[in-house]
Amino acid sequence: MRVTGGSLRGRPLAGKVLDGVRPTPSRVREALFSMIGQDLRGQRVLDAFGGTGLLSFEALSRGAAQALIIDSSRANLAELKRSVDALGLSDRVELRLGQCPGILPRAGQFELIFLDPPYAMDPAPTLAAVAPLATGWVVLEHERRRAVDAPPGLVEDRLRDYGDTSVRLYRPAPSAVDEGAAG
């Protein structure tokens, strides 16, 4: 597995893919960053189901300032750490062990949020929990046959299907953005 774009383009991940981790295929990553943009300068990224970390690494490669990557597996976090170190991103990545949505930050703003939970998991509670943290794109990758409604505070912007995977892009609802700017 390699980073597909930006300053780290072509760089392989050092960490292994552990059982139960489903990396986002390169064609889906390329399509995703075509939709949300290639220039992510200065953005803060939240990756709530880290897996291989590829989505965060792609964002950092395209100029994101920092990423918080959460994963529920201690072994997987060790593999993520190997990749972070090998890519020279240790000063821009925070790794956190925990289960979403409980481990999510209580406050803070993220211009880009990735949610790629295990397909067996209902993504709705985590999607609702990240809504108040979002100031930009929220990207949800899930099993195609699962219906997912936008929670309060988010509006679905796009839906794309890739085989058995759906990618939904959300934006903060206009009233949520106005309230955040006023506060």
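^ that was protein a. below is b, sequence first then the tokens
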Amino acid sequence: MHPILSKKQLSPNVTRLDVRAPRIAEIRLPGQFVIVRRGEGAERIPLTIADADPAAGSITLVVQAVGKTTRDLVALNPGDVIQDISGPLGRPTDLMTSGRALCIGGGVGTAVIHPIAQGLHRRGVAVVSIIGGRSKEWVIFEEELRRLGQVIVCTDDGSHGRKGFVTDAAKDVLAGGGVDAVYAVGPVPMMRAVVAVTKPLGVQTIVSLNPVMVDGTGMCGGCRVSVGGETKFACVDGPEFDGHLVDFDLLWDRLGAYRTQEQESARHEEACRIGLKKPEVA
């Protein structure tokens, strides 16, 4: 059992949970993740380890409430417990040891960028972070990233930072030169757009992929992705890959494989919540 130590709302649908998991906190590295199961019979889902405090024996999980399982998780409060947390899983980030890195986070992807920026900063790499959200209330981890280097904030409506997309700011930073590598995490369209900017410039770009994942050990095959024309398993070969080699079309198709079932589950949950009969399945 893993008790919830603290809880904080980061944006309208993103929640930070600090959870006791001392063995994971001690050995986790940037880029790694855990598989979480709230309780018996619950769905298993992957979550990035956004931060860790070995002294306190805690890890930080950042959860975007988009489906039944994630809504159940963010409904937990300090003192409640998560039954299973398996990890750390995945390959750690291949971190630079010198130079200047550009870290780009979109939405909840900013939480994934945070431990990467931490690791780079500890190695003496100069870090510039570009983070974005729909508006000011959707921007997360700004304060934490400012401790590690320069931060450029972008919002769709211009309510905070500069108006526009993170790719617009990335073009400006890259045009100035001196960027040795880019680390980008966010929605698939955002990562694809970043790659479209960096590929012609020949700037190494690492992206973190988020395909459907069940066991986290490579056995189920659900997290298959195509990188450089080869099939890879995001849970054991990644989750980070060379963005210039990723087949984003295939990734996008696979992410939508269970969209109908997810929507049906959400409708049933809503019907139960308001005390109505479950809708008929079409």
